[in-house]
Backbone:
């Protein structure tokens, strides 16, 4: 199964229906890309849940050590970790009720894509959620 992005319409539907985005690897430093992207998504009405064991909070939200520690509903898991960590993040993702796994631009793993599809996830890789949001509005 070769990777391909969901259609623009499907991505638009995902973004339109989502309310909560858990951002794995979110930094609490405003100069970092993960912070900038999550900040824009927060400004556009999404609740951001930071998932990073090295911080206490980001963007005014409590941070969690892992996805499995998040007690709230997650609509989209947005990943800002290097590709070599995607397998571990994916294993954590299946412990949640989320069904959308979104790896940021430059982050991709074919095996993880195939495994998550078998777990009934919608998988988006190597694509910036902020760019997708801007182009589907």
Residues:
């Amino acid at each position: 199964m070769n990777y391909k992005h969901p259609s623009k319409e499907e991505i638009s539907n995902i973004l339109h229906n989502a309310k909560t985005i858990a951002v794995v690897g979110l930094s609490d430093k405003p100069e970092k890309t993960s912070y900038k992207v999550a900040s824009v998504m927060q400004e556009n009405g999404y609740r951001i849940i930071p998932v990073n064991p090295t911080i206490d909070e980001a963007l005014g939200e409590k941070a969690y050590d892992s996805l499995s520690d998040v007690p709230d509903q997650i609509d989209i898991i947005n990943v800002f970790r290097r590709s070599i960590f995607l397998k571990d993040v994916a294993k954590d993702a299946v412990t949640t009720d989320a069904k959308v796994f979104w790896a940021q631009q430059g982050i991709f793993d074919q095996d993880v894509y195939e495994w998550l599809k078998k777990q009934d996830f919608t998988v988006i890789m190597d694509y910036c959620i902020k760019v997708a949001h801007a182009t589907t509005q």
Q: What stands out?
A: The chain has one domain: 8-135.
